[in-house]
Amino acid sequence: MAPEQHRGLHHLNWPEAKSAAACDSSTVVVPWGSLEQHGPHLPLGTDGLFAEQVLHQVLQALPPQLPIWFLPLQSLGFAPEHKGFGVSFTQPAEVMLAQVEAIAEPLARAGFQRLVLFNGHGGQISLLDVAARQVHGRHPNLGVHAWFLWDVDGVMDLVPDPERGQGLHAGLAETSLMLHMAPELVQLQHAVAEPPPPPPAGLSLEGRCPGAWRTNALSRSGTVGSPRGATASLGAALHEKLVQGWTTTFATLLGSSWPPRRSLESSDRV
């Protein structure tokens, strides 16, 4: 059994899973990706591969006694922006919200205290945040966290300008990380650089003051940014920063009583 497999909730029988739920601070993590085009040089499953593999590295780095388990990767995500590039999958927002509830409900009923949605796809950050709030509203004793893989302090400092701001999809960071993690899946000979057009001052594609966008309005190849100059060494540095950052965050969560848990009072009810 691989070092991280003892933390697989799906590897436990039901009495073991019931005992796991009863542990103080019991936490379940679901890595979430998307099956979508990543330019002509990266695989459809890029986001899920990153989320799953970084999570497994984090779980190996955490002390073995900590009460944290994971469920299998959820590969199908919300990615309507990538329609128009061959085989890119997406599910309706309401289906994905129902999917999160279907995962959360038995965990809450069993007595698990936390659910972390560990997301590798930028296009579903807001949707998973909505899902977390909706699920927590239905199951107040289950703390729900929607975390985005790349939200680690300092990780994008490793990416030089202008790619730091322009590399939204299949650019330098993702290509380098894949060269480090699964180089056999990268076809650099097909890589194309297509930085996005600059938005008017004060507006943005992502970040502050964003608007909805379709990839095929920004790019012919599906790449939004530039993978040129991507290296496995940059990918290794990104990987190390991601694993270190998330190991610290998970350890902090598991060592805390966050989020606050208390019985609903009349003043809390809407």
Automatic annotation (TrEMBL):
Cofactor field: Zn(2+)
Alphabetical list of Gene3D superfamilies matching this protein: Creatininase
Keyword entries, A-Z: Hydrolase, Metal-binding, Zinc
One of the GO BP terms on file: riboflavin biosynthetic process
Domain of life: Bacteria
A GO term for molecular function: metal ion binding
Family matches, as Pfam families: Creatininase
Family (UniProt): Belongs to the creatininase superfamily.
Protein name, as recorded: Creatininase
Protein species of origin: Candidatus Synechococcus spongiarum SP3
